[in-house]
Amino acid sequence: MMFSPISVFLSDRDREILYFVADGLTDIEIGHKLDLSPKTINHRIEGLKRELNVKTRVQVIVTALRNKWIY
């Protein structure tokens, strides 16, 4: 099955958050590492889910990997 790339701009911060999500960190853990509130982390992830039209964090990570936004 062939997937077409999705045109999405990821900021460096979004990319950082995605790496941590892919590593299995919680919003609280990511927030501590990036000096952000867990609410901010959740807000960024929810925004990515809306932009990518997906329902779960797993789908966000899979989409990012397929499109080579993260490695």
Structural summary, described in words:
This protein is mainly alpha-helical. The protein has one domain: Arc Repressor Mutant, subunit A, CATH 1.10.10. Helices cover 62% and strands 0% of the residues. The protein is built from four helices and no strands. It has helices at residues 12-22, 27-34, 38-52, 57-66. The radius of gyration is 12 Å and the shape is globular.
Q: What labels would you give this structure?
A:
71 residues, mainly alpha, Arc Repressor Mutant, subunit A
What's the CATH superfamily, by name? Winged helix-like DNA-binding domain superfamily/Winged helix DNA-binding domain
CATH top level is Mainly Alpha
- What is the helix fraction of residues, given as a range? 55-70%
Shape: globular
C-alpha Rg (nearest Å): 12 Å
